[in-house]
Each structure stands twice: as C-alpha cells, then as structure tokens.
C-alpha cells in the first residue's frame, strides 16, 4: 500500500448506520475526515437538474462518486495522521459495477488502496431514518450493505464490523483497533 493509503481509513456500511455521526466524533477528536461523496453529490444534484441522483441514474451518480472519491484521496494526501473517509472509492466503484456490470471494482480500487483495516457499520433499524439525501427504505440500505461487505472482502480488506454502541464507544473502538 502507498504511504498515504496506510493512513486512509474507510468507514463504510449500511446507509443510516451512524457513519456520518461517527466521523463527526472523530473530527471533534482532532482527526482529518473526508465527508461522504454520495451525500455531497445528492445535495449538488438537488440544487441543479438532478440528472445524476442515484434514484434517477445510478451509473451517472456512481461515476461522479468515483471522480469525487479520487479527488478526495488526492486532497487528503497532505494530511498527517489518520484520515477517516465516510465511504470512498470502493463504495462508488461497487455501485457502478452493480448498476452497469462494468468490472471496475478490482482494477480501480487496487490502484488506489486505503488502510487494510476498514470499518463496516451494520444495519441498525433503531437509528435508521430517511432524509432528503437518503429517501430509500431500510431494505435497500441492507442490500447495499451486503454488496459492500462482499466488495471489501474481495479486495482483501480486513472488514471490521462496528459495534452497535454509543458514538463515543464506536470512535474508541476504531482508534483502539488501529493502534493494535
């Protein structure tokens, strides 16, 4: 892995599983954080023509997410210490491959690796909520979660499930696992 990739830690998993809240806690503790590409794209698309919304054109959305994830990685290269990504390139490539069948996951993601250990937020129905950037049902979020677990495993990441615990406990868990 690249030197930067060794510091780049992905937090992925089920939509509505608490990833953004967790990355906000990690930022509060002084770590660099990269916000989820998909949410940023949805916000931009809702303000514009909406052509690349995931529920309108998943392939267009995923292509934009790939470009944004690559730009995020490049921009984070100057950071020191851990950099936590709320989703990232693997998520975007898995979405494109699922939508189109294009075999982009392996070649693209192996060329731009993250830290070998990544963290997966499991489905958590008790905290799941729809919002303007997440209008899909929990069943769709669970299906995406299952695809992501497979994608990260196929790329030989050490997929580490996050506990269903307080945000403070989750952040402590991540930092302890990275120090081991």
UniProtKB/TrEMBL annotation:
- In this chain the NadR/Ttd14 AAA domain maps to 9-170
User: Which segments of the protein form a coiled coil according to its record?
Assistant: none
Which Pfam families does its entry note?
Answer: AAA_28
Tell me where the signal peptide lies: none
Q: Which SUPFAM superfamilies match?
A: P-loop containing nucleoside triphosphate hydrolases
The name this protein carries in UniProt is AAA family ATPase
Give the source species. Answer: Sphingomonas colocasiae
